[in-house]
Design brief:
The protein is mainly alpha-helical and 334 residues long. Helix content is 73%, strand content 0%. It contains 16 helices and no strands. It has helices at 2-25, 34-54, 59-76, 81-94, 102-114, 119-136, 144-156, 165-178, 180-183, 187-201, 210-236, 244-257, 266-282, 284-288, 293-303, 312-328. Helix 10 runs antiparallel to helix 11 and helix 13 packs across helix 15 (293-303). The longest helix is centred in the C-terminal third of the chain and has 27 residues, at 210-236.
């Protein structure tokens, strides 16, 4: 016990030293070369992020650190990856208390989200937005009008690097999970955007292009997770009927990506089964005409091959629940 306490003291001392080291970089005259100063700031900010993720930090210290980051942005008249990610970590750590700090950061976050040609910076800004949503929860509502259109632009513009799109879907999932009421007015616009994404995600890349094949698998997983989050949110708002116009396109997508042509992964089959079970429970009449029980059986066979990283009992529960959802509503007899 004593050793653990001693370690914590050493870590906190190192954390404070890093904060002081970053503060010293704000004095431009200390450095003869601006590039060296920028490198120091990036390295220290990255190290501080690691500390914040793993250490219980005091609110006053995090606020001080936040203010230092803002000063560094102001001095540069620009933002940088490590600083953006650090502020995301601060937001996640402070939770709703970050709301008092958010107004001074919003212009910098907007600038980073608009920097779509700088893929690395934009990706960091998207991650930061997810952290802020999770931290602020319902308080994020006051920033939705400024930030959500930028996330949707990343998803809709085909000229933007495709690597950003799965991360943008994460933001939508976080929004519907953490700020349900605040994002609900954008429901139809978001679902129309997802409808376009479903068509794009059904592309079949050259099987020899391993990187692209893996990208599409990951994209499909993120899309299913996002749709599931949206469905739960709309259900909580007692607006399930608003979801009906989109069920057909969703089922077409799930049926297609779980055929042998797409070599469905365990994760895709698992996520698909869960969502289909939810939809069967909610929309018995609508689902009867579009469900393909043969593909459902294939999904079940896929998830029976449980990876070592998964809990077999949870997968068995998913299979039993899915079969019950289908048999209760006589889908297997359709």
């Amino acid at each position: 016990e004593r050793a653990a306490k001693d370690t914590q003291i050493v870590l906190l001392e190192a954390f404070n030293n890093l904060i002081n080291a970053f503060e010293s970089t704000l004095v431009a005259s200390t450095f003869q070369d601006e590039n060296i100063r920028s490198s120091y700031q990036s390295y220290i900010a990255s190290s501080l992020t690691s500390f914040i993720i793993t250490t219980d930090c005091d609110e006053k210290i995090l606020t001080k650190l936040y203010n230092q980051m803002i000063v560094s942005f102001q001095q540069k008249q620009s933002v940088y990856d490590e600083g953006i990610l650090l502020i995301g970590s601060i937001a996640l750590h402070l939770g709703e208390k970050f709301n008092n700090l958010m107004p001074s950061f919003t212009p910098f976050l907007i600038a980073a989200l608009k920097s779509t040609k700088d893929t690395s910076l934009c990706k960091s800004a998207i991650h930061c937005t997810s952290d802020i949503v999770q931290g602020l929860k319902t308080y994020f509502g006051q920033y939705i009008n400024d930030l959500l259109p930028l996330i949707m632009f990343v998803l809709s513009d085909n000229e933007i690097d495709k690597i950003l799109k799965p991360h943008a879907f994460n933001v939508l999932s976080d929004l519907f999970y953490c700020s349900t009421n605040e994002v609900a007015p954008f429901f139809n616009n978001i679902m129309q955007l997802i409808g376009t994404a479903l068509e794009a995600a059904m592309m079949t890349p050259n099987s020899d292009d391993i990187e692209t094949v893996e990208y599409f698998k990951g994209l499909r997983e993120h899309i299913i997770e996002t749709i599931t989050c949206i469905f739960y949110a709309i259900t909580d708002l007692q607006r399930q009927r608003d979801f009906i116009p989109y069920v057909g396109a969703i089922m077409k997508f799930l049926n297609k990506i779980n055929t042998t042509q797409y070599t469905p992964s365990f994760e895709i089959a698992k996520l698909s089964l869960g969502l289909i079970g939810d939809l069967c429970n909610a929309y018995q009449t609508e689902m009867k005409s579009i469900i393909d029980t043969n593909i459902i059986k294939d999904m079940i066979e896929t998830v029976k091959k449980v990876p070592k990283t998964e809990d077999p009992s949870k997968i068995q529960s998913l299979i039993e629940w899915s079969e019950k959802c289908l048999s209760t509503q006589n889908f297997y007899n359709h």
